[in-house]
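sanity check both lines:
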Amino acid sequence: MWSAQYLLDAGEQAAATELAERALRLRRGRRQEHEKAASVLLKADRAAAVPKLTLLAEQQPLPAWLDGVMRALEPTNVDVEQACILCAQKLLTHPRTDGEELRDALTALLFVEGETVAHSIAEAAWTRPELDFYQRRQVASRLAAVGQLDLARLVWSHLLEWQGYAIEDDVGLVDDLLNAGVKQWAEERIQELIDDPASAPLRVHRLRQMLAWLTVGR
């Protein structure tokens, strides 16, 4: 979609728009290609592009299309909230949505709809199998960032029980907890898990490491 962007930069708005629309109607392609095509439409004529993209999204495109367009729309912009909600909801229910796409959908819905969907977002962060450990961490951090600290702690509590992920994620999780200002809660929760007879020995070892990192953390 660099050619459409090039045309737009050269002042050929009509040609750029036609090429971008053609790419979006093809549907199949990479997420980045859809994002670039949607960005060209938005830059060329935002007022016309938003309803056009919304209409295309209603025609049940694939997850890569939905996520690419949603990224181009940027949920932080008030004029695209309904289009973002539509893309995100379709991603939540599409059987081929991957973890990255699902994370984007959850965080977009959280930003746009806020407290009304926060609980369901937190539940999805823990229960949806498409998400990997890092993506679950990202959703939890987003919950904390929008003031849903209790729900973020719920997700973190589950993640602290998790086994079978890279040790680097222990460090990342500790950083998330420190950044959110929940050091005392995290220390108490980790100690509970260490003292739990049901905790596997290997997990206890890693929890002790995390507790030590928290103790020397800020």
Remarks:
- Residues 26 and 61 are 10 Å apart (CA to CA).
- The radius of gyration is 21 Å.
- The mean pLDDT is 89.
